[in-house]
UniProtKB/TrEMBL annotation:
Xref: SUPFAM superfamilies: Thiolase-like
Official protein name in the record: Acetyl-CoA acetyltransferase
Gene3D superfamilies referenced in this protein's UniProt entry, alphabetically: 3.40.47.10
Pfam families: Thiolase_C_1 (PF22691)
Record domain Thiolase C-terminal: where: 247-396
InterPro entries, per database record: Thiolase, Thiolase-like, Thiolase_C_2
Length: 397
């Protein structure tokens, strides 16, 4: 077990990202989800330069009956602070916010967030089937009998945006095209071949207006992020990336309770995160945004304040989201091209940290206009069908 810190802990500590890592990703047929958790955790610890004995906090969701107890046991950890919050794809940004608050308040010194999934391999081996809904109990019972699937909900929201603001299928397709272009320079991306707007539009229809390439891929993979108190920074193997601010929000579960299909809870979580970080959207150098579908990227860009409501379609045109564009977005290729093993939100934090450290590699590293490394990044996760959102602002000194 981790040894208790000597003396009282400060209640206003800065929080740093100490280590980040991916497990093997893409097509991983032989590993279990637990093994991917362990692989990512070991790599993140190695990246930080710290010993596992410093970990006194642990956060995990999506695996086991008693998550995160089972995963912590598998990893040989006995944490004194835990979080198992599960709000879909936004889980990891929400957990990061909780962990940062706990560290700042002195409730933990080092919190490990870890995720792993063999979603692709399980379907290929027929260990599971593709899920059409999240269940038929509670409020969802009023929608599921009518075939109101997860993707149908996103498609309805996209259609509303198109009707209300004139957003076009071509503009949505631009998001998929630029994600694939960013993935081309990422050796860990599952799909790296270029695609065109015509390729996206000509694909098989999944849920109008989404063709296949409007939708995220299904992959295997895992990742881990280690957050620590500023006291640990002198012991780190690499310069820290700081958690500057975060925000969380939930919106709805039944579509009839969603006030506006064109506004996501990122409008709230983003505002809170930027206010708490003391920065403006215009100061952000790059954004990592949950992109299970192209519309998620577009509406989140609007709700985070990178463009006005209804202007997302025009904003994503002309290569603006590319690595060397005006606002690099999902620089690893995102869920549309790089990897999407399930609750992808933790991958957003890993990529943001690597870009801020300057570790993305010569072909895909983001630079500012003056040639320097980026200073500020935002990671914004979305859960369910825009049901939840977590936004984290990161920066380096």
């Amino acid at each position: 077990m981790p040894s208790p810190a000597s003396g009282p802990r400060s209640r206003n500590r800065k929080v740093a990202v100490a280590g980040v890592a991916l497990s093997d990703c893409g097509r991983v047929d032989e590993a279990t989800p637990y093994a991917l958790h362990a692989q990512a955790a070991r790599r993140a610890l190695a990246d930080s330069g710290l010993d596992r004995s410093v970990i006194d906090g642990f956060a995990s969701a999506g695996l086991g009956t008693l998550a995160p107890v089972e995963v912590a046991e598998y990893l040989g950890l006995r944490p004194t602070w835990v979080d198992s919050t599960s709000v879909g794809g936004a889980t990891w940004e929400v957990m990061a916010a909780h962990a940062a608050d706990a560290i700042a308040a002195g409730h933990a010194d080092a919190v490990l967030l870890v995720y792993g999934s063999t979603a692709r391999a399980d379907i290929k081996a027929r260990r599971r089937t593709a899920n059409l809904s999240f269940g038929a109990r509670g409020p969802l019972q009023f929608e599921v009998p009518y075939g109101h699937t997860l993707i149908a909900k996103y498609a309805m929201a996209a259609r509303r945006h198109m009707h209300q603001y004139g957003t076009t299928p071509e503009q949505l397709a631009q998001i998929a095209v630029q994600a694939r272009a960013n993935a081309a320079a990422n050796p860990d991306a599952l799909y790296r071949d270029p695609i065109t707007v015509d390729d996206v539009l000509a694909g098989p229809m999944i849920a109008d207006p989404f063709t296949k390439l409007h939708c995220c891929i299904r992959s295997d993979g895992g990742c881990a992020v280690l957050l620590v108190a500023e006291d640990r920074v002198p012991d780190l193997a690499k310069p820290p990336v700081w958690v500057l601010g975060s925000g969380t929000a939930v919106s709805h579960t039944t579509m009839s309770e969603w006030d506006d299909f064109t506004v996501s809870p990122a409008a709230v979580s983003g505002r809170l995160a930027f206010e708490r970080a003391g920065v403006r959207p215009s100061e952000i150098d790059l954004a990592q945004i949950y992109d299970a579908f192209t519309y998620m990227t577009l509406v989140t860009l609007e709700d985070l304040g990178f463009c006005a409501k209804g202007e997302g379609g025009a904003f994503v045109e002309k290569g603006r989201l590319l690595r060397d564009g005006a606002l690099p977005v999902n620089t690893d290729g995102g869920g549309l091209a790089a990897c999407h093993p399930g609750m992808r939100g933790l991958f957003l934090l890993v990529e943001a940290v690597r870009q801020l450290r300057g570790e993305a590699g010569p072909d895909r590293q983001v630079h500012r206009a003056d040639g320097t490394l980026p200073h500020l990044a935002v990671a914004s996760g979305t859960g369910g069908w825009f049901c939840s959102s977590g936004t984290v602002v990161l920066g380096r000194e």
